[in-house]
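Example 3.2
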Amino acid sequence: MEKEFLTMNKAVYDYMLSVSLKESESLRCLRVETAQNPMSVLQITPDQGQFLSWLVKVLGARNILEIGTFTGYSAMCMAEALPPDGQLITCDVSEEWTDIARTHWRDADLSERIELRLGPAIESMQAMLTSGMQQHFDLVFIDADKGNYSNYFDLGMQLVRTGGLILIDNTLWKGRVADEEVQDADTNAIRELNTHVFGSDQVDISVNAIGDGLTLIRKR
């Protein structure tokens, strides 16, 4: 008998949130504000945010690197879960969107835990390696331009410690990765990333149907 798969419709999703989501008021306010942004699709879902927070706590993470900030919701989810002396570095190219983030981080008293680095993320990651931050991070979260996903993964592997996690968002890409008729640049870049990660003998992986697909990668 073929296995049946759960259909995540709005009713099921709303029920799931009703029995699981414990969101701070600071996070809720940022999420509601971002929902008014024409680019709000770039924000992770609240269940993803809570999952990130849970992973930070389970891992006992103290140092986190995020690639792709947008308005700062995912950074806030993870920073709230850090111990008082924890640090999160987040990289983005947009001053406009990250200005929104910084306002909410300040209001939530998280500014000291979060360091924003503006500029191309590849340059920021390479600068970290040059400054001696190899294996510095417990967790790396990648949610940025898809064309550079494989580059971000390769650099992240150098920056994350052995036993640490790399999380990559959008790896199922609304199912387009499974449709051979879809051949746009972003979809192909995600396919290449998925194949690249799967072929690595340096990692343990788990691809999860959370949000738009979230791949968990443990560095061996």
